[in-house]
Automatic annotation (TrEMBL):
It comes from the Eukaryota. It comes from Paulinella micropora. Part of the 50S ribosomal subunit. The lineage of its organism: Eukaryota, Sar, Rhizaria, Cercozoa, Imbricatea. Belongs to the universal ribosomal protein uL1 family. One of its GO terms (cellular component) is large ribosomal subunit. Keywords: Plastid, Ribonucleoprotein, Ribosomal protein, RNA-binding, rRNA-binding. GO terms for molecular function: rRNA binding; structural constituent of ribosome. Pfam families: Ribosomal_L1 (PF00687). This is Ribosomal protein. PROSITE patterns: RIBOSOMAL_L1 (PS01199). One of its GO terms (biological process) is translation. Signal peptide: none annotated.
């Protein structure tokens, strides 16, 4: 078992063993983000789903109103004029077969991959490289599209793709410790609404098992999901 640092033990002592009202939870996470850099704030939602069944899978996107506070490096696989369109829209990397070959060799200098539908047969061959990293383009996630300009701008502005892992847990970064509590709450509320709106048809029993928020170097804080669901945006 890894040894807990004195700093982390001190922070852990500030978190009670209970669920917190959303604003209270976010204030506590911000207070405990004491590292020398601007820590990322993350949400971890355990859902009552078993993703090994196709009707219990969750994969979608969310557009966070306050953005993520992070620079997203976008790569685009396209051909012809679409490569120029991607570059002019702000793609960090754009290309055709050559880019596919570079990715196959392990060159992964990007956080998000978008592809045009005509290039998907080529991209499909990258499944072993992209799949484990969650980077395979997918129409449901808005990462297989002909409208490259709109897609690139949305993802650069704070649109995020997320999915439930094999345990039915969703992990999403939704801001930085430097964000105001109001901005973080707006992002968290939008995330909660998106998860509820995309509830898989095969989900049985209690959908939300737990929701925790945490910072990169801080302890996790449990959030009262019912209170979050009852909040109105802008409240």
């Amino acid at each position: 078992m890894a040894k807990i640092s004195k700093r982390f033990s001190t922070l852990l002592a500030t978190v009670e063993d209970r669920v917190y009202e959303p604003v209270e939870a976010l204030n506590l996470v911000k207070q405990n983000a004491t590292a020398k850099f601007d820590e990322t704030i993350e949400a971890h939602a355990r859902l009552g789903i078993d993703p090994k069944y196709t009707d219990q899978q969750l994969r979608t996107t969310v557009t966070l109103p306050a953005g993520t506070g992070q620079t997203v490096r976008v790569a685009v696989i396209a051909r012809g004029e679409k490569v120029a369109e991607a570059k002019s829209a702000g793609a960090d990397l754009a290309g055709d077969e050559e880019l596919v070959e570079n990715i196959a060799k392990g060159e992964m200098g990007f956080d998000l991959l978008i592809a045009t539908p005509d290039m998907m047969p080529k991209v499909a061959k990258l499944g072993r490289v992209l799949g484990p990293r969650g980077l395979m383009p997918n129409p449901k996630a808005g990462t297989v599209t002909t409208d490259l300009t709109a897609a690139i701008k949305e993802f650069k502005a704070g649109k995020l793709e997320f999915r439930a892992d094999r345990s039915g847990i969703v992990h999403v970064r939704f801001g930085k410790a430097s964000f105001s509590t109001e901005a973080l709450l707006g992002n968290l509320k939008t995330l909660q609404e998106t998860i509820d709106r995309n509830k898989p048809s095969g989900a049985k029993g209690r959908y939300w098992k737990s929701l925790y928020v945490t910072s990169t170097m801080g302890p996790a804080v449990a959030v009262d999901v019912a209170m979050l669901q009852d909040l109105k945006q802008g409240a």
